[in-house]
Amino acid sequence: GVQLKVDTFATLTYLSNELVADAAVGAADVIFGEIARAFASNEDNMLANGDGTVSYFNRAGLIQAFKNASSAGDLTTNTAYFGGVHVATATSHASWNVITLADMAAVVGRVPAYADNANTKWMCSKAFFGAVMQRLAWAAGGATAAETMGGIAPRFLGYPVVFNQHMARVPAASVPLAYLGDFTKASALGDKGEYTIAQSSDVAFVSNQLAIRGTSRTDIVVHDVGNYSATAASRVAGPVVMLLAAAS
Q: Which of 13, 57, 96, 154 has its CA 20 to 30 A from that of 89?
């Protein structure tokens, strides 16, 4: 019952022909990498923040899926009614330093057994990982010299951490701080073929520039984040659960 409708996303970049000719490193190769990064960043943004409007290319991401599950259409009305939402410590909207290991463990506890598998991951910003996950890991003690020098791998409470820089990077009220679960069971990502790159020396001929166009045919649909119920026994968490900052 999940339908993907791919749209074409595109970038257009101009390079001076002098730069193309004189650059020690292939300038076009650098642009190709930036195009791929831009498409990946756009997908991250739609997944995390898509609200179904044109600002997100009419895609509804995780946050909107949770809001749609609510009878009030938001994350702040009777938040306890969500099956898959844990609200962090009361002052988490002002400081991440108050978020505790118990908060993070409560998120783990909400993930259904069927969604706890090799695909299960945390998703958060790198800032949240450093300020909360790494802080809690260091505070637990027992770090070796090698860990202190080399840092802690992006894992927390047994699960890998993937970074989405379109998620919260500073404390704010009632915003998703992290997700945990099997994203392949909660959402569908469709990429129709690989990124395509084309270039033309004719488009900007009069300004002596090379035009480089990148295209990607993509769709993202979030289809299962659990339910919202006034009856505790009826609440069901979906395959991805949310850590939500407290309201101000």
A: 154
Q: What is the CA radius of gyration of the chain?
A: 21
Distance CA 190, CA 186 (A): 14
Span 102-145, pLDDT tens digits: 999 999 999 999 999 999 999 999 999 999 999 999 888 777 77
C-beta neighbour count of 64 within 10 angstroms: 19
CA-to-CA distance for 63 and 38, rounded, in angstroms? 21
> Which segments of the chain have a pLDDT < 50?
none
Dist. CA 72–CA 58, nearest whole Å: 21
Nearby residues of 220 by Cβ (< 8 Å), 6 or more positions away? 43, 46, 47, 50, 59, 61, 187, 188, 189, 190
Looking from the CA of 220 toward its CB, the CA atoms found within 13 Å total 28
DSSP for residue 114: G
Sign of CA dihedral 233, 235, 238, 241: negative
Token digits of residue 117 = 């598998």
In 3D space, the residue among 177, 156, 158 whose CA is nearest the CA of residue 118 turns out to be 158
